[in-house]
Amino acid sequence: MRELIRILEREAGLIEHVLFRLKSVQLLVSADEHRFLGQGSEELHEAAEELGALDAMRALLVEDIKSKHGLPENATIQDLTAVAAAEDRDALRTLRRRLLDLSAQLEAEAASSRVLTLARVAELRKLLERVAGNPGARYGTDGIVAPPSEPSRTVDRRL
After folding, report:
1. What are the CA-CA distances from residue 82 to residues 18, 77, 85, 92, 149 (Å)?
2. Cβ proximity of 67 and 51 under 8 Å
3. pTM here?
């Protein structure tokens, strides 16, 4: 159980790190600081990958614990706490509460990120429509908006 506690503590710390990175990316988007978005997204992806690896390690360890104690396939941290040594129970209870809280925070931040991203995409579409003059407009060979029958380009190359 000590190894499971160590992994759960590490997982909780990594979820905190993912939350921090997610919030950082949100702030960059909100501030229109697109220069650092790539780096922020990459760090967020790396933290999520590390979290996946930890999750796999935890799953293997839990399988071992379940088989040793005859626990059901769908055993939870609460079930593991019931068969843990007395000195490990408080740590497991605390970690369970912390992980539930962090999971809720992560869900809320992910939803917030989706809303923010969709709002920024809508703003970008409006800007592109305004720049183009009318949605879907293309320039003809003479540099003005081309009628549908004339070959067109997206950008007026004579500028």
Report:
1. 30, 9, 8, 10, 75
2. no
3. 0.69
How high is the pLDDT of residue 56? 93
Q: How confident is the model at residue 158 (pLDDT cuts 50, 70, 90)?
A: very low
| Cβ–Cβ < 8 Å for 25, 34 | no
The phi and psi torsions of 153 (rounded to 5 degrees) equal: -125, 160
Q: Is the distance from CB of 37 to CB of 29 less than 8 angstroms?
A: yes
Single out the residue of 104, 130, 105, 125 nearest to residue 117, CA to CA. 125
Angstrom distance (rounded) from CA 98 to CA 95: 5
Contact assessment for residue 4 and residue 64, using Cβ atoms and an 8 Å cutoff: no
| String of DSSP letters for 65-103 | HHHHHT--TT--HHHHHHHS-HHHHHHHHHHHHHHHHHH
pLDDT, tens digit, 9 for 90 and up, residues 106-141:
999 888 888 877 777 777 677 667 666 555 555 555
Radius of gyration, CA atoms only, the chain: 26
Instruction: Kindly indicate the confidence band of residue 154, based on its pLDDT and cuts at 50, 70 and 90.
Output: very low
pLDDT in the model for residue 137: 54
First to last CA, the chain: 70
